[in-house]
Specification:
By secondary structure, this protein is mostly helical. The chain is built from 11 helices and 2 strands; from the N terminus they run H-H-H-E-E-H-H-H-H-H-H-H-H. The radius of gyration is 19 Å and the shape is globular.
Length: 262
């Protein structure tokens, strides 16, 4: 039992880099198409809602609606990019392609694999979120100096959502089950956490629920940075995202140990 527990945890602080590098080399062959795919959905929201609905809405919290929306779309992009990389690409490497099985014949442990997958998903989330941030800044809807403070938060957001999605990956028997996570968790979170409109417009019960959701914490850090404003309760938001990144990692490692090492 002790050996199985050790196998489910990272062997050291650097083995995961090999998994990250393997995924990077495979992704590099289709990098352009992958980046465009990750940017398409949030950019459609940004321009469609920002310039369309924004004409009707006007200003929100003292800023143009498209600028308000940009922060939400950056956080949403990090969420979806990290989640889809984990529940589809990582699941394929674990289940269909059996890449994980091959890696386990090396000196790497299951924990090294999971940590490497999470780091790679966070990297893709960082690229997607940073891309939208740059577009918003070029169009004048984000403050150039202060957007630098948003970049580490984008990476942390990606890591948190990748860690949550890894639990779903460990539990799902097949690809068909991921649609429930998308429609019952990700989509409601988009509308509950202030990405499209202020949380204050929601009933009190939903406002209280939103305070516990990771996307709300990410938006409360990213949006002020993009608008050049100070963020409230920064330590609370960062701490919450760290908890969402760390605790599901250990849970998913335990679940993968039960699934792959019976």
């Amino acid at each position: 039992m002790r050996e199985l527990c050790a196998a489910a945890l990272p062997a050291n602080a650097w083995n995961w880099i090999a998994v990250w590098r393997r995924n990077y080399l495979a992704w590099k062959k289709v990098a352009l198409a992958s980046i465009l795919g990750n940017l398409a959905d949030p950019m459609i929201y940004l321009f469609g809602l920002g310039f369309g609905l924004g004409v009707i809405v006007g200003r929100v919290d003292g800023t143009p609606y498209v600028a308000f929306l940009a922060g939400g779309m950056v956080a949403t992009s990090a969420m979806t990019s990290a989640t889809f990389e984990t529940i589809y690409a990582a699941f394929a490497r674990m289940h269909a392609q059996r890449t994980w099985e091959a890696i386990l014949y090396t000196q790497l442990t299951l924990g090294d694999i999971v940590l490497g997958e999470l780091a790679w998903a966070a990297t893709k989330a960082f690229l997607a979120g940073t891309g939208i941030t740059i577009v918003a800044a070029v169009l004048g809807y984000a403050a150039w100096p202060s957007i630098l403070y948003a970049l580490p938060v984008i990476a942390l957001t990606g890591l948190a959502f990748a860690s949550l999605a890894m639990v779903i990956t460990a539990l799902a028997p097949s690809y068909d089950y991921f649609v429930f996570y998308q429609t019952l968790v990700l989509t409601p979170m988009l509308f509950l956490c202030g990405a499209v409109f202020p949380i204050t417009q929601l009933p009190d019960v939903f406002q209280q629920a939103a305070r516990f959701l990771p996307l709300a914490h990410a938006i409360d850090l990213i949006r002020p940075a993009m608008l050049g404003r100070p963020a409230d309760s920064m330590g609370l938001h960062i701490g919450a995202l760290c908890i969402y990144a760390v605790l599901p990692f250990f849970l998913s490692a335990a679940l993968f140990r039960r699934r792959l090492m019976p």
